[in-house]
Amino acid sequence: MISISDFQILPFDKKCDFITVFADYIVYRTEQDSKYYLYYMKDYFVEVCYSPSKGKVLGIHAFKNIDLADAYLDQIDISDLYL
User: Fold this and answer.
1) Phi, psi at residue 82, to the nearest 5°?
2) DSSP run (H or E) holding 57
3) How far apart are CA 82 and CA 80, in angstroms?
4) How does pLDDT run along the chain (83 residues), one tens digit per residue?
5) Does pTM top 0.85 for this prediction?
6) CB-side exposure of 21: number of CA atoms within 13 Å?
7) Which DSSP letter does residue 74 get?
8) Helices (H) and strands (E) in the chain, counts
9) Reduced DSSP (H G I as helix, E B as strand, rest coil) percent helix, strand, coil of the chain, to 5
């Protein structure tokens, strides 16, 4: 697994490849005309912004600050977990 700083300097197509192979998908959310997919990679998160109308990825953002994942909390259902 590569560090967040190494991931951030990868070319766009290599970031897409790396996410496909190594990232763990968590959840997605819809905002306006875009879908945002949240992934986890060892010690950081990656958010992928996808435009269904354009049929392409518009951006990829890697981050460590868990507060940036707050936008996804409404999408997570933990009712099936046995706590």
Assistant:
1) -95, 100
2) strand 56-63
3) 6
4) 899 999 999 999 999 999 999 999 989 999 999 999 999 998 999 999 999 999 999 999 999 987 777 887 777 665 664 54
5) no
6) 8
7) G
8) 2, 4
9) 30, 40, 30
